Amino acid sequence: MNKIFLIMQREFMTRVRKKSFIITTLLSPIFFAVIAILPTYLASLEVTDVRTIAVVDNSKQFTDVIPSTQYIKVVYIADTPAEQVKGMLDKAGYYALLVIDSAASAIQPAFTLYSQKQPAIDVMQHIENTLEKEIESRKLKSYNIDNLDNILADVKTNISIKSIKISQTGEEKESNTVITMAIAYIMSFMMYMMVLITGNQVMQGVVEEKTNRVVEVIVSSVKPFQMMVGKIFGMASVSLLQILIWVVMTAALAGVGINIIGGNLSSKPNADQVQALAQTDPQLAQVQEQATAFDNGEGLSFLNALKNQNFPLLIGGFIFYFLFGYLLYAAMFAAVGSAVESVTDTQQLTLPITLPLILAIIVMISGIKSPDGPLAFWFSMIPFTSPIIMLTRLPFGVPAWQLALSAILLVGTFILTTWLAAKIYRVGILMYGKKYTWKEMIKWISYKG
Questions:
Q1: Which residues contact 80 (CB under 8 A, 6 or more apart)?
Q2: Looking at the domain that runs over 51-142, which CATH code has it been given?
Protein backbone atom coordinates (compact mmCIF):
# COMPACT_ATOMS: atom_id res chain seq x y z
CA MET A 1 0.00 0.00 0.00
CA ASN A 2 2.89 2.34 0.77
CA LYS A 3 4.34 1.77 -2.70
CA ILE A 4 1.00 2.58 -4.33
CA PHE A 5 0.86 5.79 -2.32
CA LEU A 6 4.41 6.73 -3.41
CA ILE A 7 3.48 6.23 -7.08
CA MET A 8 0.31 8.27 -6.56
CA GLN A 9 2.33 11.04 -4.95
CA ARG A 10 4.87 11.04 -7.78
CA GLU A 11 2.15 11.14 -10.44
CA PHE A 12 0.24 13.86 -8.59
CA MET A 13 3.22 16.14 -7.91
CA THR A 14 4.62 15.73 -11.42
CA ARG A 15 1.41 16.94 -13.05
CA VAL A 16 0.37 19.57 -10.50
CA ARG A 17 3.72 21.36 -10.77
CA LYS A 18 3.36 21.83 -14.52
CA LYS A 19 2.60 25.37 -15.69
CA SER A 20 0.01 24.00 -18.10
CA PHE A 21 -1.98 22.53 -15.19
CA ILE A 22 -1.92 25.80 -13.23
CA ILE A 23 -2.88 27.93 -16.24
CA THR A 24 -5.64 25.55 -17.36
CA THR A 25 -7.09 25.18 -13.88
CA LEU A 26 -7.24 28.89 -13.12
CA LEU A 27 -8.28 30.20 -16.51
CA SER A 28 -10.82 27.54 -17.57
CA PRO A 29 -13.75 28.87 -15.41
CA ILE A 30 -13.06 32.41 -16.62
CA PHE A 31 -12.82 31.19 -20.21
CA PHE A 32 -16.14 29.30 -20.01
CA ALA A 33 -17.81 32.31 -18.35
CA VAL A 34 -16.60 34.55 -21.17
CA ILE A 35 -17.76 32.04 -23.80
CA ALA A 36 -21.22 31.95 -22.17
CA ILE A 37 -21.61 35.72 -21.67
CA LEU A 38 -19.72 37.28 -24.59
CA PRO A 39 -22.00 36.07 -27.44
CA THR A 40 -25.08 37.33 -25.59
CA TYR A 41 -23.41 40.67 -24.93
CA LEU A 42 -22.23 41.08 -28.52
CA ALA A 43 -25.67 40.10 -29.85
CA SER A 44 -27.24 42.83 -27.72
CA LEU A 45 -25.05 45.55 -29.26
CA GLU A 46 -26.79 47.66 -31.86
CA VAL A 47 -25.27 48.35 -35.27
CA THR A 48 -24.75 52.12 -35.50
CA ASP A 49 -24.02 52.25 -39.24
CA VAL A 50 -26.88 53.73 -41.26
CA ARG A 51 -27.81 51.41 -44.14
CA THR A 52 -30.00 52.63 -46.98
CA ILE A 53 -32.44 50.20 -48.57
CA ALA A 54 -33.82 51.13 -51.99
CA VAL A 55 -37.33 49.84 -52.77
CA VAL A 56 -38.78 49.48 -56.27
CA ASP A 57 -42.47 48.60 -56.01
CA ASN A 58 -43.61 47.30 -59.39
CA SER A 59 -46.90 46.13 -57.86
CA LYS A 60 -47.80 49.66 -56.69
CA GLN A 61 -49.39 48.06 -53.62
CA PHE A 62 -46.69 48.46 -50.94
CA THR A 63 -45.50 52.04 -51.30
CA ASP A 64 -44.38 53.56 -47.98
CA VAL A 65 -45.25 50.35 -46.10
CA ILE A 66 -41.73 49.65 -44.80
CA PRO A 67 -40.75 52.39 -42.33
CA SER A 68 -37.26 53.69 -41.68
CA THR A 69 -35.57 53.14 -38.33
CA GLN A 70 -32.69 54.83 -36.58
CA TYR A 71 -30.11 52.78 -38.45
CA ILE A 72 -32.08 51.49 -41.46
CA LYS A 73 -33.16 54.11 -44.02
CA VAL A 74 -35.78 53.05 -46.58
CA VAL A 75 -35.95 54.97 -49.90
CA TYR A 76 -38.76 54.32 -52.39
CA ILE A 77 -37.79 54.74 -56.06
CA ALA A 78 -40.59 55.27 -58.55
CA ASP A 79 -38.89 56.68 -61.65
CA THR A 80 -35.99 54.26 -62.15
CA PRO A 81 -36.24 50.62 -63.32
CA ALA A 82 -34.99 47.94 -60.97
CA GLU A 83 -32.35 46.73 -63.47
CA GLN A 84 -30.80 50.18 -63.56
CA VAL A 85 -30.79 50.49 -59.76
CA LYS A 86 -29.08 47.08 -59.42
CA GLY A 87 -26.16 48.34 -61.51
CA MET A 88 -25.61 51.41 -59.34
CA LEU A 89 -26.00 50.04 -55.80
CA ASP A 90 -22.47 50.86 -54.67
CA LYS A 91 -22.30 54.16 -56.57
CA ALA A 92 -25.60 55.41 -55.18
CA GLY A 93 -24.70 54.31 -51.65
CA TYR A 94 -27.48 51.72 -51.36
CA TYR A 95 -26.94 48.83 -48.98
CA ALA A 96 -29.52 46.67 -50.79
CA LEU A 97 -32.39 46.83 -53.28
CA LEU A 98 -35.83 45.36 -52.55
CA VAL A 99 -37.91 44.63 -55.65
CA ILE A 100 -41.63 43.99 -55.26
CA ASP A 101 -43.18 42.29 -58.31
CA SER A 102 -46.79 41.38 -58.97
CA ALA A 103 -47.58 37.71 -58.54
CA ALA A 104 -50.58 35.38 -58.81
CA SER A 105 -51.80 36.66 -55.45
CA ALA A 106 -52.58 40.35 -55.40
CA ILE A 107 -52.30 40.46 -51.62
CA GLN A 108 -48.93 38.70 -51.46
CA PRO A 109 -46.58 39.58 -54.36
CA ALA A 110 -43.01 38.35 -54.89
CA PHE A 111 -40.22 39.98 -52.86
CA THR A 112 -36.56 39.89 -53.92
CA LEU A 113 -33.64 41.54 -52.12
CA TYR A 114 -30.50 42.34 -54.11
CA SER A 115 -27.21 43.24 -52.42
CA GLN A 116 -23.49 43.06 -53.11
CA LYS A 117 -22.87 41.14 -49.87
CA GLN A 118 -24.91 38.97 -47.53
CA PRO A 119 -27.53 41.20 -45.85
CA ALA A 120 -27.37 41.53 -42.06
CA ILE A 121 -29.95 39.63 -40.02
CA ASP A 122 -31.47 42.79 -38.52
CA VAL A 123 -32.12 44.20 -42.01
CA MET A 124 -33.80 40.99 -43.15
CA GLN A 125 -35.90 40.77 -39.98
CA HIS A 126 -37.04 44.40 -40.25
CA ILE A 127 -38.19 43.95 -43.84
CA GLU A 128 -39.77 40.52 -43.33
CA ASN A 129 -41.57 41.40 -40.10
CA THR A 130 -43.00 44.61 -41.54
CA LEU A 131 -44.25 42.93 -44.71
CA GLU A 132 -45.66 39.95 -42.81
CA LYS A 133 -47.70 42.21 -40.53
CA GLU A 134 -48.94 44.25 -43.48
CA ILE A 135 -50.01 41.20 -45.49
CA GLU A 136 -51.65 39.60 -42.45
CA SER A 137 -53.58 42.81 -41.85
CA ARG A 138 -54.78 42.94 -45.47
CA LYS A 139 -55.84 39.30 -45.44
CA LEU A 140 -57.83 39.82 -42.25
CA LYS A 141 -59.51 42.92 -43.64
CA SER A 142 -60.63 40.92 -46.68
CA TYR A 143 -63.01 39.02 -44.38
CA ASN A 144 -64.95 42.27 -43.69
CA ILE A 145 -65.29 41.68 -39.96
CA ASP A 146 -66.30 44.68 -37.86
CA ASN A 147 -63.97 45.77 -35.04
CA LEU A 148 -61.37 43.25 -36.21
CA ASP A 149 -58.48 45.08 -34.57
CA ASN A 150 -60.24 45.12 -31.21
CA ILE A 151 -61.09 41.42 -31.52
CA LEU A 152 -57.50 40.48 -32.29
CA ALA A 153 -56.18 42.60 -29.44
CA ASP A 154 -58.64 40.95 -27.07
CA VAL A 155 -57.86 37.42 -28.29
CA LYS A 156 -54.07 37.81 -28.02
CA THR A 157 -52.93 36.03 -24.84
CA ASN A 158 -49.57 35.47 -23.22
CA ILE A 159 -49.26 32.62 -20.71
CA SER A 160 -46.35 32.11 -18.32
CA ILE A 161 -46.61 28.96 -16.21
CA LYS A 162 -44.86 29.06 -12.87
CA SER A 163 -43.29 25.70 -12.02
CA ILE A 164 -43.22 24.64 -8.35
CA LYS A 165 -41.44 21.48 -7.21
CA ILE A 166 -42.86 19.76 -4.11
CA SER A 167 -40.56 17.61 -1.99
CA GLN A 168 -41.65 14.51 -0.04
CA THR A 169 -41.80 16.64 3.09
CA GLY A 170 -44.21 19.07 1.42
CA GLU A 171 -41.63 21.84 0.92
CA GLU A 172 -42.29 23.93 -2.18
CA LYS A 173 -39.49 25.36 -4.33
CA GLU A 174 -39.66 27.25 -7.58
CA SER A 175 -38.13 25.35 -10.51
CA ASN A 176 -37.40 25.91 -14.19
CA THR A 177 -37.25 23.16 -16.81
CA VAL A 178 -34.85 25.10 -19.06
CA ILE A 179 -32.35 25.54 -16.22
CA THR A 180 -32.60 21.87 -15.28
CA MET A 181 -32.07 20.75 -18.87
CA ALA A 182 -29.08 23.08 -19.23
CA ILE A 183 -27.46 21.76 -16.03
CA ALA A 184 -28.06 18.16 -17.14
CA TYR A 185 -26.49 18.80 -20.54
CA ILE A 186 -23.46 20.66 -19.14
CA MET A 187 -22.73 18.04 -16.46
CA SER A 188 -23.10 15.09 -18.86
CA PHE A 189 -20.97 16.63 -21.57
CA MET A 190 -18.27 17.66 -19.07
CA MET A 191 -18.22 14.09 -17.74
CA TYR A 192 -17.80 12.72 -21.28
CA MET A 193 -14.95 15.09 -22.10
CA MET A 194 -13.09 14.68 -18.80
CA VAL A 195 -13.30 10.85 -18.71
CA LEU A 196 -12.17 10.64 -22.33
CA ILE A 197 -9.32 13.15 -21.95
CA THR A 198 -7.95 11.89 -18.62
CA GLY A 199 -8.29 8.25 -19.71
CA ASN A 200 -6.22 8.99 -22.81
CA GLN A 201 -3.65 10.78 -20.65
CA VAL A 202 -3.22 7.64 -18.54
CA MET A 203 -2.78 5.55 -21.68
CA GLN A 204 -0.24 7.97 -23.17
CA GLY A 205 1.70 8.06 -19.89
CA VAL A 206 1.92 4.27 -19.81
CA VAL A 207 3.05 4.15 -23.46
CA GLU A 208 5.72 6.80 -22.85
CA GLU A 209 7.11 4.99 -19.78
CA LYS A 210 7.16 1.72 -21.70
CA THR A 211 8.86 3.29 -24.74
CA ASN A 212 11.49 5.04 -22.60
CA ARG A 213 12.14 1.80 -20.66
CA VAL A 214 11.49 3.67 -17.43
CA VAL A 215 8.95 1.02 -16.48
CA GLU A 216 11.68 -1.64 -16.39
CA VAL A 217 13.44 0.24 -13.60
CA ILE A 218 10.22 0.82 -11.66
CA VAL A 219 9.04 -2.79 -11.95
CA SER A 220 12.26 -3.97 -10.29
CA SER A 221 10.95 -2.59 -6.98
CA VAL A 222 7.20 -2.27 -7.57
CA LYS A 223 4.67 -4.83 -8.77
CA PRO A 224 2.91 -4.02 -12.07
CA PHE A 225 -0.47 -3.98 -10.30
CA GLN A 226 0.78 -1.44 -7.75
CA MET A 227 2.22 0.71 -10.50
CA MET A 228 -1.02 0.69 -12.53
CA VAL A 229 -3.24 1.44 -9.53
CA GLY A 230 -0.91 4.18 -8.30
CA LYS A 231 -0.85 5.81 -11.73
CA ILE A 232 -4.62 5.89 -12.25
CA PHE A 233 -5.32 7.02 -8.68
CA GLY A 234 -2.65 9.70 -8.99
CA MET A 235 -4.30 11.03 -12.15
CA ALA A 236 -7.69 10.82 -10.43
CA SER A 237 -6.45 12.98 -7.54
CA VAL A 238 -5.13 15.57 -10.00
CA SER A 239 -8.49 15.70 -11.80
CA LEU A 240 -10.43 15.90 -8.51
CA LEU A 241 -8.28 18.82 -7.36
CA GLN A 242 -8.94 20.53 -10.67
CA ILE A 243 -12.70 19.93 -10.37
CA LEU A 244 -12.82 21.29 -6.81
CA ILE A 245 -10.98 24.46 -7.87
CA TRP A 246 -13.38 24.86 -10.80
CA VAL A 247 -16.41 24.38 -8.53
CA VAL A 248 -15.18 27.02 -6.07
CA MET A 249 -14.28 29.53 -8.79
CA THR A 250 -17.49 28.89 -10.76
CA ALA A 251 -19.62 29.27 -7.61
CA ALA A 252 -17.86 32.55 -6.80
CA LEU A 253 -18.30 33.91 -10.34
CA ALA A 254 -21.92 32.72 -10.46
CA GLY A 255 -22.65 34.27 -7.06
CA VAL A 256 -21.29 37.64 -8.17
CA GLY A 257 -23.24 37.46 -11.43
CA ILE A 258 -26.52 36.48 -9.72
CA ASN A 259 -26.17 39.28 -7.15
CA ILE A 260 -25.52 41.85 -9.88
CA ILE A 261 -28.42 40.66 -12.03
CA GLY A 262 -30.72 40.28 -9.03
CA GLY A 263 -29.83 43.78 -7.83
CA ASN A 264 -30.58 45.23 -11.24
CA LEU A 265 -33.96 43.49 -11.34
CA SER A 266 -34.96 44.49 -7.84
CA SER A 267 -33.96 48.12 -8.44
CA LYS A 268 -36.46 48.48 -11.30
CA PRO A 269 -39.77 50.25 -10.54
CA ASN A 270 -42.74 48.07 -9.75
CA ALA A 271 -45.82 47.76 -11.97
CA ASP A 272 -47.96 50.28 -10.05
CA GLN A 273 -45.30 52.96 -10.27
CA VAL A 274 -44.86 52.46 -13.99
CA GLN A 275 -48.60 52.52 -14.64
CA ALA A 276 -48.96 55.78 -12.74
CA LEU A 277 -46.10 57.28 -14.75
CA ALA A 278 -47.67 56.13 -18.02
CA GLN A 279 -50.97 57.83 -17.12
CA THR A 280 -49.28 61.17 -16.48
CA ASP A 281 -47.19 61.03 -19.65
CA PRO A 282 -48.74 59.40 -22.75
CA GLN A 283 -45.32 59.18 -24.36
CA LEU A 284 -44.42 56.53 -21.81
CA ALA A 285 -47.24 54.20 -22.83
CA GLN A 286 -44.74 51.64 -24.05
CA VAL A 287 -43.47 51.34 -20.48
CA GLN A 288 -46.75 49.61 -19.71
CA GLU A 289 -45.52 46.47 -21.48
CA GLN A 290 -42.29 46.56 -19.51
CA ALA A 291 -44.32 46.77 -16.32
CA THR A 292 -46.30 43.70 -17.36
CA ALA A 293 -43.12 41.77 -18.09
CA PHE A 294 -41.75 42.82 -14.72
CA ASP A 295 -44.99 41.86 -13.01
CA ASN A 296 -44.58 38.35 -14.41
CA GLY A 297 -41.26 38.24 -12.59
CA GLU A 298 -39.55 36.16 -15.26
CA GLY A 299 -36.08 37.40 -14.41
CA LEU A 300 -36.46 36.87 -10.67
CA SER A 301 -38.20 33.55 -11.28
CA PHE A 302 -35.22 32.38 -13.31
CA LEU A 303 -32.78 33.33 -10.55
CA ASN A 304 -34.94 31.72 -7.84
CA ALA A 305 -35.11 28.49 -9.83
CA LEU A 306 -31.34 28.52 -10.19
CA LYS A 307 -30.82 29.08 -6.46
CA ASN A 308 -33.27 26.27 -5.62
CA GLN A 309 -31.22 23.61 -7.41
CA ASN A 310 -29.85 20.92 -5.10
CA PHE A 311 -26.22 21.83 -5.71
CA PRO A 312 -24.76 19.63 -2.93
CA LEU A 313 -26.37 16.58 -4.57
CA LEU A 314 -25.34 17.67 -8.06
CA ILE A 315 -21.73 18.39 -7.08
CA GLY A 316 -21.48 15.24 -4.95
CA GLY A 317 -22.99 13.11 -7.71
CA PHE A 318 -20.65 14.63 -10.29
CA ILE A 319 -17.56 13.94 -8.15
CA PHE A 320 -18.65 10.35 -7.34
CA TYR A 321 -19.53 9.41 -10.93
CA PHE A 322 -16.49 11.16 -12.31
CA LEU A 323 -14.17 9.41 -9.84
CA PHE A 324 -15.43 5.87 -10.43
CA GLY A 325 -16.26 6.45 -14.09
CA TYR A 326 -12.75 7.73 -14.62
CA LEU A 327 -11.19 4.86 -12.65
CA LEU A 328 -13.22 2.35 -14.66
CA TYR A 329 -12.10 3.72 -18.01
CA ALA A 330 -8.57 4.59 -16.85
CA ALA A 331 -7.96 0.92 -15.95
CA MET A 332 -8.97 -0.12 -19.47
CA PHE A 333 -6.91 2.64 -21.09
CA ALA A 334 -3.90 1.64 -18.94
CA ALA A 335 -4.26 -1.98 -20.08
CA VAL A 336 -4.28 -0.86 -23.72
CA GLY A 337 -1.28 1.39 -23.14
CA SER A 338 0.70 -1.50 -21.66
CA ALA A 339 0.07 -3.68 -24.71
CA VAL A 340 1.44 -1.32 -27.39
CA GLU A 341 4.72 0.42 -28.08
CA SER A 342 3.47 3.71 -29.58
CA VAL A 343 0.37 5.89 -29.36
CA THR A 344 -0.45 5.26 -33.03
CA ASP A 345 -0.96 1.55 -32.24
CA THR A 346 -3.72 2.33 -29.74
CA GLN A 347 -6.37 3.52 -32.21
CA GLN A 348 -7.75 0.09 -33.05
CA LEU A 349 -7.65 -1.13 -29.45
CA THR A 350 -9.35 1.94 -27.96
CA LEU A 351 -12.41 1.77 -30.23
CA PRO A 352 -14.30 -0.76 -28.03
CA ILE A 353 -13.53 1.44 -24.99
CA THR A 354 -14.79 4.70 -26.50
CA LEU A 355 -17.94 3.22 -28.08
CA PRO A 356 -19.92 3.15 -24.77
CA LEU A 357 -19.01 6.82 -24.18
CA ILE A 358 -20.20 7.79 -27.67
CA LEU A 359 -23.39 5.77 -27.18
CA ALA A 360 -23.96 7.52 -23.85
CA ILE A 361 -23.75 10.94 -25.52
CA ILE A 362 -26.37 9.83 -28.07
CA VAL A 363 -28.69 8.53 -25.34
CA MET A 364 -28.09 11.71 -23.31
CA ILE A 365 -30.35 13.71 -25.67
CA SER A 366 -33.20 11.28 -25.06
CA GLY A 367 -32.43 11.34 -21.33
CA ILE A 368 -32.80 15.11 -21.17
CA LYS A 369 -36.20 14.94 -22.89
CA SER A 370 -37.43 11.94 -20.89
CA PRO A 371 -35.25 11.43 -17.78
CA ASP A 372 -37.59 8.80 -16.32
CA GLY A 373 -38.03 6.86 -19.55
CA PRO A 374 -36.91 3.22 -19.90
CA LEU A 375 -33.99 4.11 -22.19
CA ALA A 376 -32.51 6.63 -19.75
CA PHE A 377 -33.19 4.31 -16.80
CA TRP A 378 -31.38 1.26 -18.18
CA PHE A 379 -28.42 3.25 -19.49
CA SER A 380 -28.09 4.93 -16.09
CA MET A 381 -27.77 1.43 -14.57
CA ILE A 382 -25.19 0.07 -17.05
CA PRO A 383 -21.80 0.92 -15.45
CA PHE A 384 -20.10 1.85 -18.75
CA THR A 385 -22.72 4.53 -19.52
CA SER A 386 -24.07 5.41 -16.06
CA PRO A 387 -21.45 8.12 -15.31
CA ILE A 388 -22.94 10.21 -18.14
CA ILE A 389 -26.62 9.19 -18.19
CA MET A 390 -27.11 9.31 -14.40
CA LEU A 391 -25.80 12.88 -14.40
CA THR A 392 -28.33 13.62 -17.14
CA ARG A 393 -31.14 12.40 -14.89
CA LEU A 394 -29.82 13.74 -11.59
CA PRO A 395 -31.00 17.38 -11.94
CA PHE A 396 -34.55 16.17 -12.64
CA GLY A 397 -34.65 14.02 -9.49
CA VAL A 398 -33.77 10.33 -9.21
CA PRO A 399 -35.25 7.87 -6.65
CA ALA A 400 -32.76 6.93 -3.94
CA TRP A 401 -32.90 3.20 -4.74
CA GLN A 402 -32.01 3.82 -8.39
CA LEU A 403 -29.12 6.06 -7.39
CA ALA A 404 -27.84 3.46 -4.90
CA LEU A 405 -28.18 0.57 -7.38
CA SER A 406 -26.37 2.51 -10.09
CA ALA A 407 -23.55 3.41 -7.67
CA ILE A 408 -23.14 -0.19 -6.44
CA LEU A 409 -23.01 -1.55 -10.00
CA LEU A 410 -20.46 1.09 -11.01
CA VAL A 411 -18.16 0.42 -8.03
CA GLY A 412 -18.43 -3.35 -8.47
CA THR A 413 -17.66 -3.13 -12.19
CA PHE A 414 -14.71 -0.85 -11.46
CA ILE A 415 -13.21 -3.41 -9.04
CA LEU A 416 -13.70 -6.28 -11.50
CA THR A 417 -12.36 -4.29 -14.46
CA THR A 418 -9.32 -3.12 -12.52
CA TRP A 419 -8.51 -6.72 -11.52
CA LEU A 420 -8.78 -7.89 -15.15
CA ALA A 421 -6.86 -4.87 -16.47
CA ALA A 422 -4.06 -5.52 -13.96
CA LYS A 423 -3.63 -9.05 -15.34
CA ILE A 424 -3.24 -7.62 -18.85
CA TYR A 425 -1.00 -4.84 -17.59
CA ARG A 426 1.49 -7.14 -15.79
CA VAL A 427 2.12 -9.10 -19.03
CA GLY A 428 1.94 -6.34 -21.62
CA ILE A 429 4.07 -3.77 -19.81
CA LEU A 430 7.27 -5.84 -20.31
CA MET A 431 6.57 -7.22 -23.81
CA TYR A 432 8.06 -5.62 -26.93
CA GLY A 433 8.19 -6.19 -30.67
CA LYS A 434 4.76 -7.68 -31.19
CA LYS A 435 1.40 -6.46 -32.48
CA TYR A 436 -1.34 -7.13 -29.99
CA THR A 437 -5.10 -7.63 -30.34
CA TRP A 438 -7.91 -7.87 -27.82
CA LYS A 439 -7.97 -11.64 -28.41
CA GLU A 440 -4.32 -11.90 -27.40
CA MET A 441 -4.82 -9.60 -24.42
CA ILE A 442 -7.72 -11.71 -23.13
CA LYS A 443 -5.38 -14.73 -23.08
CA TRP A 444 -3.05 -12.85 -20.74
CA ILE A 445 -5.78 -12.80 -18.10
CA SER A 446 -5.42 -16.55 -17.61
CA TYR A 447 -1.63 -16.40 -17.21
CA LYS A 448 -0.36 -17.30 -13.74
CA GLY A 449 2.54 -15.79 -11.83
A1: 56
A2: 3.40.190.10
